[in-house]
Amino acid sequence: MKTQKILLAFFLLATVLVSCKRDEYFIGGSLHTAKVNMTTYDYLKSNSSGLFDTLILLIDKAGIKDKINQSNMTFFAPTDYAIGNYLNERAKQEQNIDPFRKWSIDSMILHELPMFADSIDVYLVKGATGYNTLTEKGAIFETAHPGTQAVVSYEETREPALGYNSSVSTIPRIVYYTLLREPLTPPFVAADLTEEQGYRQRVQTSGIETTNGMIQVLVNQHTLFFKDKD
Predict the structure, then answer these.
(1) Where would I find the beta strands (DSSP E) of the chain?
(2) Which of 25, 38, 72, 118 could be stapled to 42 by a disulfide with Cβ–Cβ 3.0 to 4.6 Å?
(3) HSE-up of 59 (CA within 13 Å, CB side)?
(4) What distance in Å separates the CA atoms of residue 10 and residue 7, rounded to the nearest whole number?
(5) SS3 of 209, please?
(6) What band does 13 get if pLDDT is binned at 50, 70 and 90?
């Protein structure tokens, strides 16, 4: 009986997830409105889970608040986990030189703020990337970094861990962001792009509309600067 109740609860949750309105999104199991009466920067700073505290620290130290708040831009926001993943990779590099070396957020602030200020441009896409503008195959968008493009797609998923349930008629869809390594000529299918063509990352929270643009939150497994793992 207990197992049946658990399965029923899971089924009901899956039904709600795939049938919720597109002007709403989930964080930590709670339903939120997708439109927020604050800027992109202020939304990140006010996140109740503190998911962007280190990101905001770096933005403040680098003095690029205005860049994040540019009008009509989508920010594919890396979480603090992405920054932690990057720091771990940098620490490994340093320890290959000297086993006693470390690389912390303080090291990053001291040595890499100019790189951070420049590299954050690849997370900023010109224009809105709302559900009504995205397709399964994906479209090319210009980033704020000169000469750099990205593909944004809105793809069906049949992964149970991402909300799919065979008992529900509506197939859930996920936003993906692929930072291109090289120019890309249509036609193409976003899901078929190779690692040589671009860095493909899933969006874990999508469609947050702020007063100046939109936020798409990249998965926690992402590594800041789209760094290749050794």
Answers:
(1) 24-27, 30-33, 73-77, 124-126, 139-142, 149-156, 173-180, 198-209, 213-218
(2) 38
(3) 24
(4) 5
(5) strand
(6) very low
Residue 110 has what DSSP assignment? H
Its pTM stands at 0.84
Residue range of the domain that includes 106:
2-226
Q: Which CATH number goes with the domain that contains 167?
A: 2.30.180.10
Parallel, antiparallel or unpaired: strands 149-156 and 139-142: antiparallel
Spell out the residues 6+ positions from residue 29 whose beta carbon is closer than 8 angstroms to its own.
none
Give 55-101 pLDDT, tens digit per residue: 999 999 999 999 999 999 999 999 999 999 999 999 999 999 999 88
User: Can you state the angle between helices 80-97 and 53-62, rounded to 10 degrees?
Assistant: 70
Q: Where does the pLDDT of residue 33 fall: very low under 50, low under 70, confident under 90, or very high at 90 and above?
A: low
